[in-house]
Write a structure and sequence with these properties.
Strand order of the largest sheet: 2-1-3-8-7-4-5-6
Structural class: mainly beta
Low-confidence stretches: 1-22
Order of helices and strands: EEEEEEHEE
CATH class: Mainly Beta
Helix content: 10-25%
CATH topology: OB fold (Dihydrolipoamide Acetyltransferase, E2P)
């Protein structure tokens, strides 16, 4: 069984995919462009930053794998990247998946698009 959670920028929905024989959880955020790339790796660091003064990345989730840093913005996304801003619920789901992967030692697959030099997360998969 596979469980997919799609969270377009305003309203999340939940759907089950009974045709799959493996178990997976994917949390996606609606975006207007296709994902440019994906990385499957172990999680090294998870950081949520909500500082608003003296910091250029407020309300940001950073997930670092052994090779790459990925970013999700709730607000204040870089110029030209506002279509990649996600809801707080999406960030919570992604942080939960990343934390699960970190604690279990499992790999996650992160789909992303590069915008303004940042690897903007669009989907995270955590497989069984």
């Amino acid at each position: 069984m596979s469980l997919a959670v799609r969270s377009p920028l305003l309203a999340p929905s939940l759907s089950r995919c009974p045709s799959s024989t493996s178990s997976a959880l994917a949390v996606t955020a609606g975006a207007t462009e296709a994902e440019a790339a994906s990385v499957q790796d172990t999680v090294s660091i998870i950081e949520y930053n909500q500082l608003t003064s003296g910091n250029n990345l407020p309300y940001t989730l950073l997930i670092q794998t052994s090779t790459t840093v990925f970013t999700a913005y709730i607000s204040n996304s870089p110029s030209g990247c506002s279509n990649y801003a996600v809801t707080l619920d999406t960030v919570k789901a992604w942080q939960s998946l990343a934390t699960s992967a970190l604690l279990s030692g499992k790999q996650i697959k992160i789909y992303y698009t590069v915008c303004a030099g940042a690897n903007m997360i669009t989907t995270i998969d955590l497989d069984k």
